[in-house]
Amino acid sequence: QDDKFKKVISHAKEYGYVFQSSEIYDGLSAVYDYAQNGAELKKNIRDYWWKAMVQMNENIVGIDAAIFMHPTTWKASGHVDAFNDPLIDNKDSKKRYRADVLIEDYCAKIEVKIDKEVKKAEKRFGDSFNKDEFVSTNGRVVGYQEKINTILSRMARSLESEDLADVKLLIEELEIADPLTGSKNWTDVKQFNLMFGTKLGASAETAMDLYLRPETAQGIFVNFLNVQKTGRMKIPFGIAQTGKAFRNEIVARQFIFRMREFEQMEMQFFIKPGTQGEWYKHWKEHRMKWHLSLGMGEDNYRFHDHEKLAHYADAAADIEFKFPFGFKELEGIHSRTDFDLKAHEEHSGKKLQYFDHEENKSYTPYVLETSIGLDRMFLAVFSNALQEEELENGTTRTVLKLPSVLAPVKAAILPLVKKDGLPEIAREIVGELKWDFNVIYDEKDAVGRRYRRQDANGTPFCITVDHDTKEDKMVTIRHRDTMEQQRVKIEELRTIIKEEVDV
Ligand code: ATP
């Protein structure tokens, strides 16, 4: 598993997807740059989300609010007082860790054991194997599961009570060691605020303390009434937004899973109080459908319903994805009640209410939120796509099986040789296709090597121009996943590619 993750990171670099930020200065921890292919993949994921949320829903509109917000915003939202992580230091190594993550990692190791038991049983029972039944009746698995549950609920209780002594005790009892040095010499657990501070204004006396936004949601809440009025929106309706958010994360060793500067795709859905139960269910289902529509495997997703709720929520669930290091949160669906709008009313002194013409009364709407990290989605897509396949001739090929709709480059156009007029025909095809798709031209190396390069790059199609093309106006189109090749007319290319990459 570690191995797979290392391959993901090195492949992302080698093929121009993700680079360490400021690499020539030895990098900046937990900050990354998206390279030529990564920027395209990221944009395609963002567009895929925007299309599903904004374009396809008449009652959802999109905005683009500023990163800087009035500092009172973060008082109202609770981030000044309660946006903390529980930290613990190792006295020997002087390294700092998130106490909750140390405990969660410990539980993830138990989960790996469960996985192993399931796989073993699957092999033994073959077709008659029923996973749900096995997991709920096998003594060893049930024991593991109970252990995880006990640990997590004890941790949740302690974090909620703000008495963090039990979190430390838990770490000691489980004999959790510093992952880097193995030392078990821990300090007490302390809370640490995750917001980045900065200053607005030129002189020291007049400068105003600001925060870089730690989430995009508040830009939506403070604009709720502006959008509702100018867009003449009727409840239920949603406001969506994508954009950068910043958190001074302490545990920063999981590549783009947890970054200090990252991008969120959030949607706040404003509803009538009392209807949150049905909308919570609705958005859980819809968001899961969105994920499954990418064809990345149903087994790679699961819901995690929260027992411990944040101060603003009356129900919350995560959509978890099976990353190379195990199942982890990819997206959150939160029923936030009227917490945010009420808090902003209180701190701003402005009413943020909706007048319901049918009911002939005003109220503060309730909110359902869907919140997904764009970078985390990128990691899910990229790590799931990266595969090594044994071929019939005994060799292996590295292939990045990205969903075609998300692939940075849709087709590579390859002249079989660099002469006899073939490059010119290939360039002409590029000239036509580039109006509709991101395509590239490649003439370097033997065609087999070019195919492999495009496989590893995630390009769904290779289109080869050969000597016959001059006569019959046909080319060979090769499919990345099956490696099947077809002879097709040049004029059909657009339709063939469109069918595969459009949604
Ligand atoms: P975690 O528990 O993993 O820190 P969270 O519960 O704090 O995440 P939310 O505040 O609910 O996360 O943010 C919504 C989404 O934003 C998350 O589901 C995740 O995809 C993404 N996200 C949050 N923090 C980061 C980060 N530091 N780097 C990348 N993505 C992030």
TrEMBL record:
Alphabetized PROSITE patterns for the sequence: AA_TRNA_LIGASE_II
Q: Name where it mostly resides.
A: cytoplasm
Task: Name the Gene Ontology molecular function terms of this record.
Answer: ATP binding; bis(5'-nucleosyl)-tetraphosphatase (asymmetrical) activity; glycine-tRNA ligase activity
Task: Provide one Gene Ontology cellular component.
Answer: extracellular exosome
Q: Which domain of life is it from?
A: Bacteria
Q: Which InterPro entries match?
A: aa-tRNA-synt_IIb, aa-tRNA-synth_II, aa-tRNA-synth_II/BPL/LPL, Anticodon-bd, Anticodon-bd_dom_sf, Gly-tRNA_synthase/POLG2, Gly_tRNA_ligase_bac, GlyRS-like_core
Which EC number applies? 6.1.1.14
Gene Ontology biological process terms from the UniProt entry = diadenosine tetraphosphate biosynthetic process; glycyl-tRNA aminoacylation
**Where do the Aminoacyl-transfer RNA synthetases class-II family profile domain residues begin and end?**
140-415
Q: Where in the cell is it found?
A: Cytoplasm
State the HAMAP family in the record. Gly_tRNA_synth_B (MF_00253_B)
Tell me the function of this protein.
Catalyzes the attachment of glycine to tRNA(Gly).
**This chain belongs to which protein, by name?**
Glycine--tRNA ligase
